[in-house]
Amino acid sequence: MDWIISDELGLTVGHLVGWGAAGAMIIGGVAPYIPQYRQIKRTQDADGFSLYVCLTLLIANTLRILFWFGKRYELPLLIQSIVMNITMFVMIHLCVNVRKKNQIIRARERIFTAQPDDTARWLDQRSSVGREKPRRFYDMDRKYFWAWTDFQSYLDCMLVFSVLGAAITYLLIEFSPFVELIGFLAVFTEAMLGAPQIAKNHQNKSTEGMSLSMVIMWTCGDVFKTAYFVIREAPTQFWVCGGLQVSLDIIILFQVWLYHDNTAAARRLRRGD
Fold first, then answer.
1. CA distances in angstroms from 19 to 14, 96, 185, 225, 228, listed in the order given
2. Out of 83, 91, 98, 126, which residue is the most buried by the measure of CB atoms under 10 Å away?
3. Mean residue pLDDT across the chain
4. Could you give the count of Cα atoms lying within 13 Å of 29 in the half-sphere of its Cβ?
């Protein structure tokens, strides 16, 4: 059967399996965020989702895209990075809109950039009235970084990061150690996504509030991804950091077992039992 497909269509079962694996790579990273999106949409509550997850993945995948120009790797991995960036912006857009709707008292708008006339208007109104009236403020303070109140600010921030990264990459594209560094930073940043959750579980001595099914999805996806990197002979940075990511997933699963009693007690307390 394999030779018939090969003769008539120029395809083999190996090709089909390879395409299936590539398709799984592209959509596999996005899949865990579908239930999270639906939950936020249904409950109109985004407090349980950290936008720093989006920041981490946006940085990691932007760096991975830049790395492709210096050292070509498999096209499905490049497409995966593009799709993941789009997904993260979709998540940010939803979270920003939900948080705006949930404001009982409208707070000041915190934005990444401000027009000069906005600043002048703020100064004029403050000096004439004696109190702050405008609602848009330029916030480069770390306190408000990645906590802006409009979606455009997140786009602007990543645009600045991407343009600066592209310019530096263009200048140093022939410098091999720099290109390798970009690849390492891209996959290492993504690999460390589990670290904040590990720290939080350790601090609380409990995994209450963490979705076990989500972690299992992460673990299965990371195992598949790392195996794909090894089999397809992806750059070393990819499979090394993929192995690190699997290790962090296993540590989180170990915490589920380690803090099982505390987690059960916390759930009973929350239910009022």
1. 9, 36, 28, 14, 12
2. 91
3. 77
4. 28
* The token pair that represents 238 in the structure block: 């990819």
In what helix (H) or strand (E) does residue 243 lie, and over which residues does it extend?
helix 236-258
CA torsion 69→163→55→59, rounded to 10°? 20
DSSP 8-state class, residue 112? S
Tokens of 266: 């916390």
- DSSP β-bridge partners for residue 77: none
**Measured CA distances, 185 to 29, 56, 59, 137, 198 (Å):** 18, 11, 9, 32, 21
Decide if 74 contacts 232 (C-beta within 8 A).
yes
* 36: nearest Cα among 21, 22, 46, 28: 46
Q: Which tokens go with 263? A: 């987690």
How is residue 1 written in tokens? 């059967």
- Structural contact between residues 67 and 183, judged by C-beta atoms closer than 8 angstroms: yes
Name the band, by pLDDT with cuts 50, 70 and 90, for residue 35: confident
Residue closest to 240 by CA, chosen among 178, 186, 174: 186
Q: Which two tokens stand for residue 105?
A: 């008292």
> What pLDDT, on the 0 to 100 scale, is given for residue 208?
67
**Are residues 113 and 153 in contact, defined by beta-carbon separation less than 8 angstroms?**
yes
Tell me the per-residue pLDDT of 218-263, one tens digit each, with 9 for 90 and over.
788 888 878 877 887 777 777 888 888 899 889 989 988 898 888 8
Contact 226, 243 (CB under 8 A): yes
Q: Nearest 10 degrees: CA dihedral of 49, 55, 57, 60? A: -160
pLDDT band, residue 13 (cuts 50/70/90) = low
